[in-house]
Structure formats: structure tokens, C-alpha cells
């Protein structure tokens, strides 16, 4: 390609379902002459450096030979290379829209490299996680677990009781923790790293310019990290009846006697169980056929059993036709299993996902494209359709975890300012639902692996085979491993158990470093920990673990 103009191009590719698919497509493109390939299998796109004058027949043939279908090839423009020159006459080197986890990770990375950074924020410093997400919810969930355990212990010879709950006091304690962490983990860092926070609402006024409440602000590079907000389904009467979200539920100072939760994925399950633990009658209503519908069915079954044992009522495969407020309570018209009935509640909590915060940014003026949900369309290097503007975190439609937001924020700063061309890699990404017991997973589920074309074998181990669960006298749970047939390479793991969020990290490392189930079975695991469940599940591929002595190799 020496002496010939090259451009960054985007190619649609259908049929990709996992990281391995992305690797196969990358190899096919490189074999046809593409360079600096970045494949995003979730969005079905491949971006790479290409010579426009070259016939793309060989490129398409290579992708077809790899088992995928090529689409339209579009030129994105010339690719910038190398680090951005610092301080060349504009207000800042990087302006970040937002001030949450992705924004701060980007600002710290850029400041460390000597660039001038501004964060534009019209709300509260710190974003979702510290203010209305991870920190406050888990603080309350832990309190709920303590209240439940006090009144429902499983050990002979002990007498414990759980008295009335002062939710106002719990919320005040939670707020104090949030205020302290926001100060220490966000506000104090502004001075430590010497970047600027600009209060106000930012809108793009052109491809390379923004205004903050009407005041122009210039920079050669921008990062959109504006996060997401709860998404509300269009159910008849819901808006008029009134509802709680994951944000306002954390501000309640009284426990509702009856609570209906719309949505039975992570947020709905966590907050629904929290109110169960505080004494509410809780109905979990979801259109999916099972709770935690994106996880393994065995995990859904185990978690549903635990929730039912604690008093929650699950309505799966259910459609809510209308919500009405009548005489101080709420009626939900539900259809499920071929019958129609009414769920009566004092409050309704909506937990049906989150939508990206892009509606009021005037992205069209900047030439930035969004998808049908409003998420930024970015390539694997987090570049939008405007090469000067990047995106990171929830606003891109990436997995909605704070660890991903921080990872993408730092990567976007590297790529935008230092020209590093780093690409996202979510291999082995852990996910946790902080119920009791917890549900944690990493890698591919069995269904995902089969859709990706793997020939798989699985091991499903009930936690009553794990000595730690027997000692805890709590056997609601399961460990499931998914491996590639023949090689035994671990592709995915799911754990429902006490402390599953900690246990799963061993599986994350095993998946990321391509270990096999034999590797896991032959590795030391401490006895009388839930982590031993991974070893036992790995051994269960080849033998009946119920016929092993304790710690048998």
C-alpha cells in the first residue's frame, strides 16, 4: 500500500455472535490486505485501513470462507495517526461530556499524559455508580440481608429476632456513605490531577465545537460519556399512576406493604428482594419466561427457588396491559399462562433497563450517528462516526458495568490523544446480580456458545455438593461450566451461591487465559470455600463428585 492513499473503512458483517467470531473475521480481513482491524461482533461491524482503489472481491471472499456474510463497505475518511500535539491554541486538548466513571478514567489518563482536560457536567459529580447505582444500592442490599438473616437463621440452638425497620435511618446512613465516596473518589481528584470541571449542559454546535449553556468551548478531541437513565415501558396508565425507578426506590423512607416490580433482571431482582427482606409483599413481573433471562436456565431456576422461599411471588411470561391507581393503591392488569388477573400493590417499581443519555446533545450537528436505542455508534476503538469524537461507557451501548465504563474511558483517552489504537476486548467479562444468594457469570452461556458454533459439553453441579454450602446450611444454588468439546477449554461459568461474585473471578482468569476444565480440576482450591465449587464442577465432567472424599483430587 506504500504510496497509495489509504482510508479507514467500515464493513457490515453478519453472523458474528462472540469474541471468537471477531477473531475469525479479523483474520479474514487481514488475509485480504486490511490493516489495523477492529471488529465489533455485537454491532456486526468491522473497521480497518484499506486502499479504496483495490477490488474488494478478495476481501468478501475471505469473509465468506470464514463463515460470515459481508455487507456494504463505507469509507470513514483518512485515519489520524500519532499523538495529538498538546495545547495548540484551543481551550482544552480534550473535553469530556459527563463526569462519571468513564469521564474520570479518561481525565486521569489524559492528565497523566500532560493534556489539558475539561469535564462538562450539568448534574451531580460522580455519575450513576456512586450516586444512584452500585454504591447506594449495595449498601441497602447488605442491610436488607442483615435484617433477613436476623429473623431467619438456619442454626440450631440460636435465638435471634429482627425488629421493625427504620428505613429512614438506613437511607440516611447510605447517603452519608455516598457523600463521602463522591468527595474522596471524584471531587478530590479534580485538584489532584489538575483538570477542570465546567458546570452546565453541553450541546454540539458543529463537528468540532460545543457550547455549554450557550458558552462556546473548543478542543480538537471530544469524549461523550453521558451515561444512561432508567427506561420506562409504554404501559397504559403507568405514567398517570406513578412509579418508582432504581433511583427513587433508593430514596424511599417507608417500606411499602405491597410492591410490584416490573422487570426481573439484575436491578428488579436486587431491589425486589431488598424490600422482601424488609417485610414487603413483592410481586416480580416480567415478560420473559424466567427470572434473569439472559443467564443460564439452571441459574434462573435456582434463584427463583430462593426468592420464592423468601416470600417473593414471580410472574414470568407475563404481559402488563394497564396500570391504574384506585383508592390509594395500584392495580396491574396482567396476562400470563393463558389467564388474566390483577396484581394489587401500593407501589410499582419499574426496572426494565436503561437508555443512553444522548437525546439533548445535538449529535446531528457533529455528524455523530446513534442506533435505534439512542446509543452512540462506535467502532472497537470507541471512535464515533466523527473521527474527532469518541464515546465510552453506558452511552455506547456497552455492557452496563462500572468496570467497563472506566476501562472504556481510559481507552478512549489513549486512542484520542496518544494514537494508541487500542480495541475493546470483553473476553471473560464478569457479571454479578447481588441477590442473596448472588448470581455471577463470566464468558459465554451454553446457548451463546452453541449459537457461536461451538460443540460444547457442560457440567451442572448443585451447591449441595459443595461442603461450604452444607456448613452454611444454605443449598439454594448451582455451578455450571461450559467447555469446548474435545479441547476442554473453558468458555463460560455461572455460579449461584453465597459469595458468587467473588468466586467468579477465578473463572474470569481461566476463560481469559484459555485454561481447560482439567486445568481447573487439578488446581488447588481452599477447602470449605464456595470457590471449591469450581473445582468440583470441573471434576464432574469426568466423574461422579458425590463419590469423592473431601478434597479428593
Give the helix tally: 16
What's the total number of strands? 26
Average pLDDT? 93
Q: How far from one another are the termini?
A: 56 Å
The total domain count is 4
Largest sheet: 5 strands, parallel
CATH superfamily of the largest domain: FAD/NAD(P)-binding domain
State the shape.
Answer: globular
* Uncertain residue ranges: 77-81
CATH architecture of the largest domain: 3-Layer(bba) Sandwich
User: What structural category characterises the helix and strand content?
Assistant: alpha/beta
Helix content: 25-40%
Strand proportion: 25-35%
In short:
By secondary structure, the chain is of the alpha/beta class. The strands form 7 sheets. Strands 7-6-5-11-21 form a 5-stranded parallel sheet, with helices on one face. A 5-stranded antiparallel sheet has the order 22-23-26-25-24, sandwiched between helices.
Your description of this structure?
With 553 residues, the protein is α/β, with parallel strands linked by helices. It folds into 4 domains: 7-77, Alpha-Beta Plaits; 94-230 and 356-418, FAD/NAD(P)-binding domain; 238-351, 3-Layer(bba) Sandwich (FAD/NAD(P)-binding domain), CATH 3.50.50.60; 430-547, Enolase-like, domain 1. It contains 16 helices and 26 strands. The strands form 7 sheets. It has a 5-stranded parallel beta sheet with strand order 7-6-5-11-21, with helices on one face. It has a 5-stranded antiparallel beta sheet with strand order 22-23-26-25-24, sandwiched between helices. It has a 4-stranded antiparallel beta sheet with strand order 2-3-1-4, with helices on one face. Helix 1 packs antiparallel against helix 2 and helix 5 runs antiparallel to helix 6. The chain is globular, with a radius of gyration of 25 Å.
